[in-house]
Amino acid sequence: MSGLKPRTRIQKRNSETILDAALDVFSRNGFRGATLDQIAKEAGLSKPNLLYYFPSKVSMHRALIDALMANWLDPLREMDADGDPVEEIVAYVLRKLDMAREFPRESRLFANEIVQGAPNIMDKIEGELKDLVNEKAAVIAHWVETGHVRAVDPYHLIFSIWATTQHYADFDAQIRGIISPVGDSHFDDARTFLETMYRRMLAL
User: How far is CA 65 from the centre of its chain?
Assistant: First the structure.
């Protein structure tokens, strides 16, 4: 049996508070621009208290990335090879847009890491992300070959879905500055636009 004691309720709460603060700081400043002092201030805890729970900035960032990847890949995992091809791809688009709406900080955390060359998550990109994309690209390629959707490059289709959905989280300030939406109403408009665009692109 492990000699580790289960964490107390306070310890769990403090860990969650720290990670939530770290998510705010990392999503704004990126890994390189974030500091332990910034995270401690955001969390309302002392720096030594912060380091009691997480020994380094790297360990906090890694905990966030691990949690992010666990959830971030679920929408693509749900694409069913036995489903209606157009409906499955459009459903994936809409799931990704929903994630941009519901988890904007996580999207910006990922985007900041990629822009900086993915120094802390390249193993994830070259591992589970690449494997999953290869798997689903093969499914899309089969749908193309069997005449169920128009001829498209599976990889560039997936990349375009990422670009047209995560844009609404990663470039939120730009969008709001240009169209001045009421609340999140632009996500509803984007949903209608993207669904129409991808259906027209894919349907025979």
Answer: 9
